DUF4870 domain-containing protein
Amino acid sequence: MEKTQTNTEKVTDTNEGKTIAVISYLTIIGLIIAYVMNNDKKTDFGAYHIRQSIGLAAAGLALGVVGLIPVLGWIVSILGTLLLIYMWVMGLINAMNEKKKPLPFFGNKFEEWFKSI
């Protein structure tokens, strides 16, 4: 017997996916919470934004390491931080607007690198 999905179930899935997606952009703790929430009830939309957010976190960590280098590292770190803030805002806006749009510059790479998540 085939189970049919009603409009109410689709709306609930969309809302849960949107909630998970938005939470994933709110700090590292939010990313962990979103990951755990998405493990309970897998949503494609939530997983997509979790991968994008993991990419942002990894890029932030890399910038932190580069920032340890005197002068040149500081300059790269400052410019990179501005870029990360821009990418974070774009990701959060996409999550709130229910869009599966990759982040500027590295979003497609984040999808490729973290596809197993």
